[in-house]
Q: What sequence folds into this?
């Protein structure tokens, strides 16, 4: 090749018989005729095989997860990874991510849909789309195959938590809170909720060292917010909220 004698093994007898050896010889001759070094081509194939083994769907998904989970609430991270481990990795996890076809991903999602958890199937498709966009950006896949599945799953109807939106209903709710006769701490928490508009978990985990009653501010640490923020979340406290907190403090 290129004026130099080169030798290459075609396999070990008897694992490779005479016919197979001749077939491989002919393949090598075609490569040489096309100006391709058979030895270099074989090394490239081995590297590609190793690369594919290292870039399985699960490996890339876990890498994507590690890159982004630092910005998520811990409970959300745990739930997301558990869904992938239970519903996607067992069927696609060991496959090279670039080799998976849209119908294969759809088959996995329909398995979830058949259990009657359509919303979970849609969430998984969204996760897979994010994983594929990451794999495209890092050179492990050519495109996002999840985008080909838009419309393949029936639309899901989100189940909203019970809420009160009309003024009369809001008034009734506030009167019910004021009429609560349970523990004082619970009653004060209920009264604070409509004055600060934070998530229940953020209110429940509040600590006194976060609250400045004189300044009328509650500074929630960034790590306790649902989507972890880089800075503290400052909640202004109205005079009514300050009065409730002052009554709560001795308790």
A:
């Amino acid at each position: 090749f290129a004026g130099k004698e080169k030798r290459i093994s075609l396999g070990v007898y008897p694992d490779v018989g005479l016919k197979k050896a001749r077939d491989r010889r002919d393949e090598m001759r075609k490569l040489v005729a096309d100006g391709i070094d058979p030895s270099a081509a074989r090394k490239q194939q081995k590297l590609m095989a190793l690369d594919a083994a290292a870039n399985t769907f699960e490996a890339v998904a876990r890498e994507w997860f590690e890159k982004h989970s630092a910005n998520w609430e811990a409970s959300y991270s745990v739930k997301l990874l558990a869904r992938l481990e239970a519903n996607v990795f067992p069927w696609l996890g060991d496959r090279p991510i670039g080799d998976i076809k849209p119908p294969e991903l759809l088959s996995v999602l329909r398995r979830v849909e058949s259990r009657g958890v359509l919303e979970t199937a849609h969430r998984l498709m969204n996760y897979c789309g994010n994983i594929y966009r990451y794999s495209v950006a890092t050179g492990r896949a050519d495109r996002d195959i999840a985008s080909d599945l838009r419309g393949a799953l029936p639309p899901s109807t989100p189940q909203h938590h019970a809420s009160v939106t009309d003024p009369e209903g809001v008034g009734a709710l506030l009167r019910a809170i004021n009429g609560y006769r349970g523990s004082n701490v619970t009653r004060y928490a209920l009264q604070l909720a409509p004055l600060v508009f934070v998530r229940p978990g953020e209110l429940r985990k509040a600590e006194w060292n976060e609250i400045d009653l004189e300044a009328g501010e509650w500074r929630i640490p960034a790590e306790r917010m649902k989507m972890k923020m880089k800075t503290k979340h400052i909640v202004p406290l109205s005079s009514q909220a300050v009065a409730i907190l002052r009554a709560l403090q001795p308790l």
